[in-house]
Amino acid sequence: MKLGEKQTLKVIKKVEFGIYLAEKEEDETRVLLPAKQVPQGIKAGDELEVFLYKDSKDRLIATTNEPLLMLGGLAVLRVVEVGKIGAFLDWGLEKDLFLPYKEMTRKVEKEDEVLVTLYIDKSRRLCASMKEIYDLLDKNSPYQKDDSVSGRVYEFSDNFGTFVAVDDKYSAMIPSFEDCSHLRIGDVIEAKVTNVKPDGKLDLTLREKAYIQMDADARKVLEVIEEYAGVLPFNDKASPEVIKREMQMSKNAFKRAVGRLYKERKIEITERSIRKL
């Protein structure tokens, strides 16, 4: 019998409190389907599709209800309770699904909606995890370059960027040079597709097109120059790493903003600095 999956089992025996199911009649391992879920007219020898999980007493039990999440899948589930060792999620069954603290990528609160997968722990219990999402996301999205999309942030990487599940199912990322410091895991964002990679993964941006974004970038550059008492200790020839660290923007975006400010005679560019006029 497969814990955490839907499967077709045979009715072996009817009792007052339900029916016992097994893969074969001669199997000693049997699972109970409670009486309130037993279809009318079913009899020994009939087959029935059920989902197997464990009840509050850690006993294997069957249900004809459709869970919101099964092994190998992803789902956005609501936090119904937060305890000392983890949280409990509503997944459409009588017993809530346990999310251990060690499987959280951030601390969750009651009523939060979190993207999780399902796994079997060392004690053979079904649990939720906010980790290992990347490999489960679909890479065959219907989106193309310049499409607007909605996605959920599920991971941050200093090297690569901000990982997003578009429509809670498609693999996407915001590159690391974009400033995503205002985001947190679980946030739902609106973004634009900048590239569809050969493997189907999406590159996203929160920024507007360059000509729209330039004004905002120019304002930010001026603000940073003022923080440096009117003289920025590097110019537009600085390394991308320095620009990203100080400006939270790409080198190209920085150069466009600096060019705008220079044309407007708001700054002076020297060999080693940028000075506000």
Description of the structure:
With 277 residues, the protein is mostly beta strands. It folds into 4 domains: 6-63, Nucleic acid-binding proteins (OB fold (Dihydrolipoamide Acetyltransferase, E2P)); 74-129, OB fold (Dihydrolipoamide Acetyltransferase, E2P) (Beta Barrel); 137-205, OB fold (Dihydrolipoamide Acetyltransferase, E2P) (Beta Barrel), CATH 2.40.50.140; 210-276, Arc Repressor Mutant, subunit A, CATH 1.10.10. The chain contains 3 helices and 18 strands. A 5-stranded antiparallel sheet has the order 3-2-1-4-5, with no helix packed on it. Strands 8-7-6-9-10 form a 5-stranded antiparallel sheet, with no helix packed on it. Strands 11-12-13-15-14 form a 5-stranded mixed β-barrel. The mean pLDDT is 90.
CATH architecture term of the largest domain: Beta Barrel
Which regions are unreliable across 5 or more consecutive residues at pLDDT < 50? none
CATH superfamily of the largest domain: Nucleic acid-binding proteins
Radius of gyration: 27 Å
Strand order of the largest sheet: 3-2-1-4-5
The secondary-structure class comes to mainly beta
Largest sheet: 5 strands, antiparallel
**How many strands?**
18
Which labels suit this protein?
38% strand, 5-stranded antiparallel sheet, mainly beta, OB fold (Dihydrolipoamide Acetyltransferase, E2P), 3 helices
